[in-house]
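Hi team,

Below is the intake form for Peptidase M24 from Aminobacterium colombiense. Please confirm the fields before the structure is written into the shared record.

FORM ID: S-0412
PROTEIN: Peptidase M24
ORGANISM: Aminobacterium colombiense
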Amino acid sequence: MRTENILRRTERLRKAFPSLAIDGVVLFVFESANWQSVYYISGFRGSSAGVLITEQETCLITDGRYMTQASEQSPFTLIPQGQRSLVEAMGDLLKQKDCRRVGLEKEKVSAKTFEQIQGFVKDVEWKDASQLLPMLRRAKDSDEADLIKRAGMIASNAYRAVIAKVKEGMTEKEFDALLEYTVKKLGAEGGWGNHGFIVASGPRSALPHGVPTDRSFQKGDWVTVDFGALVGGYLSDITRNFCLGKPDTRAREIEMVLLNAHKEAAIALKPGASGKEIDGIARRIIADGGYGEYFTHGLGHGLGLEIHENPRLSPLSEDFLQVGDVITVEPGIYIPGFGGMRIEDDYLITESGAERLSGNLEQGLILL
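The structure came back. Fields below:
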């Protein structure tokens, strides 16, 4: 990550201090949990660290395993954890800097950690800053958009390579493993990390989040694959469908409804459009096609360092799209006992509309 990006982000963070009435923000990563927040603001990608940002300073605490890595990745002042716990080291730092009102991501910190830090610094007033980093991370800069685009291209190329090897008898798990391997082979860090790909064939494709099983692909099956890649910490999120042989007539009808719903929703993406409005465009097309009751989730979500971020496209969304948002569009139809499909791509909101970032895969049903 470029140092100028880190410095720009810390300045944006500081500008939010008055609204929360704080004089500092603390971020933690424990065993890789919440690495996204720490990485975004500091550039550090290790599995254990504490970050303190005050009005004047930026400090990063980590242990001996990561001191060299941290010095290479982050411009923050490095503080050795030493023989202390990470929480105790942060408590000592807060006392040293005389911080009195501190923001903490309470949604990311365990009750035990919060009790410990309160015990180490009893005179600090803690404010919930859980929404601060998601707010900063929402608008993607050009470097972030480029990483998501690269992740989309790698995932697309991997998918093409893998479906060329599909045959009857291959299992969902085998397809999933080959796709994950190929994504890495083509240069990605991996797939989705803690989130596995979705591979659901035949009647199982009616499961929106169907995890891969030992079910074998059969003649006439269509298969829904929700997949992506991780590049430089940033993710792509794509869903495609293929069929072994000639698909059912009803499957073709569902495909056409979804293609139309996706296209019209994507055309409407622009700054100022509401998440509810965009969702409604796709939902009306699906309902007019006779499948309204089978579209059971929101149309899309933000994407970046995490697979689900703000903003949201859904009937309940109160979000309005902004320049720099990266959003998925993923209409789906799922009929229990029959099967389902979803068509998903990733879009960057620009001044003039939206740019597709998720590779150049055709959206229609691929026949093998």
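SUMMARY LINE: The chain has two domains: 3-137, 139-367.

Thanks, M.
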